[in-house]
Amino acid sequence: MLKVGIVGGTGYTGVELLRLLSTHAEAEVVMITSRAEEGVSVDELFPSLRGAMDLRFSTPDVKLLATCDVVFFATPHNVAMNMVPELLAAGTRVIDLSADFRITDADLWSKWYHETHVCPDVLATAVYGLPERNAEKIRSAKLIACPGCYPTAVQLGLIPLLEEKLVDPSRLIVSAASGVSGAGRQAKIDNLFTELSESFKAYGVGGHRHLPEIEQELALAAKGPVGLTFTPHLLPQVRGIHATMYAEMIDPAVPLDEIQFLFEKRYADAPFVDVMHLGSTPQTRTVRGSNMCRIALYRPQNRDTLVVLSAIDNLVKGASGQAIQNMNLMFGLPETMGLQGLALMP
After folding, report:
1. CA gap 67, 144 in Å, rounded
2. CATH assignment of 2-125, given 3.40.50.720, 2.60.120.10, 3.30.420.40, 3.40.50.2300?
3. Is 0.70 surpassed by the pTM of this model?
4. Where is the chain membrane-spanning (predicted)?
């Protein structure tokens, strides 16, 4: 049984980790930290976990965390980087759900997060935790940088096209929308129900922090530079990400059914990617609460632009579920363990 520690367990990704790990057959959460909630029982803060988690929040202590087999960081950026080097030195494996280790260039990270990276030497040791691309590296990794929610939905939709050089990598456009839980569990006027209800808006149009992460990883798939225009939007709902991707075909003679076959073949062994039949439309409600990504392909008016639709739950496949998927791979467990739950309907 794996001994699991969670740093920063009071946010939405933290409680989602607890929900999913509570029924995991080979993992036990033995420690969960929060400075603000020290001494408070987990089920007092999250009554949904009554009877499932008999733990109290404690102050983060690296020496105690180092007794765990694996530690998850469900924290804002600039927290994990201050503790990870010591945990790695103690032989504890780390899965970071924040952005601290996703961008491999420390200067680029600092540009987007407006702080100095305190352990740039560790960046080179981190494995980017997208199982559908890096499963073998994840198996032997000591430190996993779990992908962001938007980057997960976008990469799964575009990687097959870039790997096979079917589209122009310099002319990629993504319009994506997220439920408000993607903003975290915090008190902000913009996140109030009365501000969000019956409204829809773009944000981060001039530049979103997920952009350099997405471009970095898509460039690896394309084996060359990519040009991406990325516009995120806020949905008046709790969970879900829907990404619509536009890519210009290099060879318009390639039929859509051949590209469909390519996607089906690419993800044939990926248990959490569902390539839907042609003409399908993925919806956020069909992935809510699950670790599944559903993808559909279109070629409007049979012209030269491919449209890829991708839907995930931002808290599961976009965060905590994918983190557990990485843990399973790291420790030689079945990839799907603890993640077999189906989407919630209605």
Report:
1. 18
2. 3.40.50.720
3. yes
4. none
